[in-house]
Automatic annotation (TrEMBL):
Swiss-Prot/TrEMBL GO biological process terms: tetrahydrofolate metabolic process
Organism name: Methylobacterium aquaticum
Molecular function in Gene Ontology: sarcosine oxidase activity
Alphabetical list of Pfam families matching this protein: SoxD
Matches recorded under Gene3D superfamilies: Folate-binding superfamily
Protein's name according to its UniProt entry: Sarcosine oxidase subunit delta
InterPro entries: SoxD, SoxD_sf
Lineage: Bacteria, Pseudomonadati, Pseudomonadota, Alphaproteobacteria, Hyphomicrobiales
Length: 95
């Protein structure tokens, strides 16, 4: 599988470390209960189809990326810097 880093260009996935689902896990008061923390850490969906994932370009620019990947075929639909995704979420929360 090849990942197109926005900073370094197309690279082999061996240069990256997979972190998992990029969806926010805990927010606001959810973090206050042990049950919520347990669910966020140990319970995961395993959907077939497009999913946003966090990847770290460890052997390159060392940037965190959000990779939109089809879990059925491993085809990559988009790669964006995680910082841009976080900013967009913050702006959406502020509106």
């Amino acid at each position: 599988m090849r990942i197109r880093c926005p900073y370094c260009g197309e690279r082999d996935n061996g240069e990256f470390s997979y972190r998992g689902d990029a969806a926010p896990r805990l927010s606001g008061g959810d973090a206050d209960t042990p049950e919520a923390v347990h669910d966020a850490v140990y319970l995961r969906d395993n959907p077939a189809g497009l999913i946003d994932e966090l990847w770290f370009h460890a052997a390159g620019c060392r940037a965190w990326l959000v990779v939109t990947r089809d879990t059925s075929s491993h085809a990559i639909a988009a790669v964006v810097p995680a910082r841009a995704v976080a900013r967009a979420r913050q702006e959406g929360d502020a509106a």
